[in-house]
Specification:
The chain has 226 residues and is mainly alpha-helical. It contains 13 helices and no strands.
Length: 226
């Protein structure tokens, strides 16, 4: 059964009157967790977007870049966006449910934050309201401050591209610590490791840009230490 078939079943539950929060309650374990990841990115993106009742082309395109939504599934993704916008539950309620679903798996929550940043930058702009939203979600998720700073540094065009920040390192970290951190990040972002975290295979594409940023940051640090 494909991920979008299972998401369609979740949509049917929503249409029957269940809230997204109730749907999340049933998606705690694999393989359902991969469905939850996709729904969580869409739902939180919808809460982050302007509440104009419509899904923009940029939003759908950005989501399709990650999840490779087939043309026939775009309507379902758009419907989920709009259902999330109309749901009376606030984004903090969603974030808490998602946090409970992944428990202490900060790596999975960091993957989800990466998807949210991708959607936030779909229109090429990073608004203060989006920054406040993402910072609050990261806080609820329990994401370390340095991890959120690394995401902001990587995604926001006018953010300082400090390689130490991108690798989640302290300013006083040694080159040896930087190398160890770089190796750890490369290992954790291998496609097999991401699949083991319960991410849908489509979401592994999130790692492509991440690995490029990680390697670029390490190269800058290594060149400076030479």
């Amino acid at each position: 059964m494909s991920i979008w078939t299972r998401i369609t079943e979740a949509l049917q539950a929503l249409a029957a009157g269940q809230s997204l929060s109730e749907v999340f309650e049933r998606l705690r374990t694999p393989p359902e967790r991969s469905v939850a990841f996709t729904i969580a990115v869409i739902a939180l993106s919808a809460k982050m977007a302007k509440a104009d009742g419509l899904v923009t082309r940029d939003e759908v395109t950005a989501f399709r870049d990650v999840f490779q939504i087939a043309r026939e599934d775009e309507a379902g993704a758009a419907r989920l966006f709009n259902l999330a916008r109309q749901d009376v539950a606030g984004f903090e309620d969603y974030a808490r449910k998602i946090k409970a679903m992944y428990r202490e798996r900060v790596d999975c929550l960091s993957d989800l934050m990466e998807g949210l940043f991708h959607i936030a930058m779909a229109d090429g702009q990073y608004h203060p309201a989006e920054d406040a939203f993402l910072a609050r979600v990261a806080e609820i998720f329990g994401l370390p401050v340095q991890d959120f700073s690394a995401l902001r540094a990587r995604f926001v065009p006018d953010a300082p591209k400090d390689p130490w920040v991108i690798l989640g390192l302290r300013p006083d970290a040694t080159p040896a610590e930087a190398r160890a951190q770089w190796k750890r990040l490369v290992r954790e972002n291998h496609p097999d490791a991401m699949m083991a975290r319960g991410l849908p295979k489509e979401a592994v594409r999130l790692a492509e840009r991440r690995m490029a940023d990680i390697n670029r940051a390490w190269e800058a640090i290594e060149a400076g230490a030479a």
